[in-house]
Amino acid sequence: MSKFEHFSAQMAIDAVRKAALLCAHVRANLTADGALAKNDKSPVTIADYGSQAVILHLLQAATPDIPVVAEEDADALRADDNAALRAQVFAEVRRILPQLGNPEILAAIDRGNHTGGPAGRFWTLDPIDGTKGFLRNDQYAIALALVEDGQPVMGVLGCPELPCGHEATAKTGCLLAACRGEGAWLYPLDAGEAAPVKVSSTADTALACFCESVESGHSRHDWSATVAEKLGITRPSVRMDSQCKYASIARGDADIYLRLPTRPGYEEKIWDHAAGCLVVEEAGGTVTDIRGKPLDFSAGRTLRHNSGVVATNGRWHDQVIAAIQAATPA
Ligand SMILES: Nc1ncnc2c1ncn2[C@@H]1O[C@H](COP(=O)(O)O)[C@@H](OP(=O)(O)O)[C@H]1O
Ligand SMILES: [Mg+2]
Ligand SMILES: [Mg+2]
Ligand SMILES: [Mg+2]
């Protein structure tokens, strides 16, 4: 791995940790006026904006020439109607980066407008993945990846509500990081030593544990139930918000992650998958779309050449793809 990648991985981990502090503080104090509905009706909160401001400011300082594809922009925050929410975003960001002025915070959020594409390097950020989970006090993730010539080469997943291990004493909050060709690593979210992670070695699909979105609007639960039946899986699915599902596959907690399209034409967003996909691949797993095609991060802000997502421990990925195809709803 190049010196640049080592440097950018350390910096990305540090940026995600800082954003996680902001998210935890917002969540502990969140009220109904801390969220807005975007044009597509999906929610966005003080913490989504704050996390994006913190990370994009730090990326600008460290890698000023690398553009960013991020989920949010500051348009709604600038509206007169949202003055109270805007003030809360400013206050939360300054708890983490006290020197930042209001215009710099808005400018940092707006740095995420790159179009992506096949050539060169860009960052992609989901400041909070699983905003609906965040609002429900369930799982959420902060996902940052570096994409080079259409391939994720470094990825960091901050998972503030995911326990760091299986022991009863395990701390809540972990972070997974991967660089292409270097494996995947698990860190405590706050600070501490890294340990390598590996996908499960479950050899029989019937014994697999599968996970999917909590939201039936994001992944078809009836379709996945039929797939599970075809694979002989008897355990019910584990429903979990956010890229914590990728973290679960990478750590071997679950064996299959199914994201089955709810409607034709929905294009998955690159920030919803880049970091998670690399972490799973580097932990030894396989990630494709529902037809078995690799995810194509070179097509812009979305995965428009793909449909849905399937991540597994890699042992019987083709069998899972075949079951999905055989169970395609009418
Ligand atoms: N119809 C749809 N199909 C698939 N994903 C969708 C979707 N509508 C929204 N999403 C994405 O689902 C993500 C959450 O995934 P999950 O259900 O696994 O928690 C959202 O990320 P955000 O929460 O960052 O907006 C959003 O980008
Ligand atoms: Mg969103
Ligand atoms: Mg997301
Ligand atoms: Mg998001």
UniProtKB/TrEMBL annotation:
Mg(2+) binds at residues 71, 126, 128-129, 272. PROSITE patterns: IMP_1, IMP_2. SUPFAM superfamilies: Carbohydrate phosphatase (SSF56655). Keywords: Hydrolase, Magnesium, Metal-binding. It catalyses: adenosine 2',5'-bisphosphate + H2O = AMP + phosphate; 3'-phosphoadenylyl sulfate + H2O = adenosine 5'-phosphosulfate + phosphate; adenosine 3',5'-bisphosphate + H2O = AMP + phosphate. Its EC number is 3.1.3.7. It is an enzyme of class 3 (hydrolase). Belongs to the inositol monophosphatase superfamily. This is 3'(2'),5'-bisphosphate nucleotidase.
